[in-house]
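Example record

The entry below shows one chain as it appears in the dataset: sequence first, then structure tokens.
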Amino acid sequence: MKYLRLYADENGESCVEEMSVDFNPVDYAPPAPAFGISDRTEVTGTIYVRFPAGWTSELHPTPRRQLFVTLSGDFSGCTSDGTRMNLKPGDVVLMEDTVGKGHTAEVIGNEDVFAMMIHLQ
């Protein structure tokens, strides 16, 4: 499984890199057969958000370390270093650019975007 990591470099520029999740087979819910499980990540809360069609933002850092999970609609973001991220339902971004210049974001198309933000420690 792949996801994007959004972070600030030593110069305060927001950057993005592709990451992957490792899975290990675990008997998680016997008697169901084993399936792949990732390492545990501690969370402090979850919120659901709706961005209305036409919504757009200026450069801003993320207010906290969090996972952004696109549930419906098309969303686009751009890092301060100029890298564009086009997100569709099912895409996940680990947002860690809590300092620096930040990123922009906008709803693409005429459909609202629904997402889940999972707050991390």
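Notes for this example: The longest strand covers residues 43-51. The chain has a mean pLDDT of 97.
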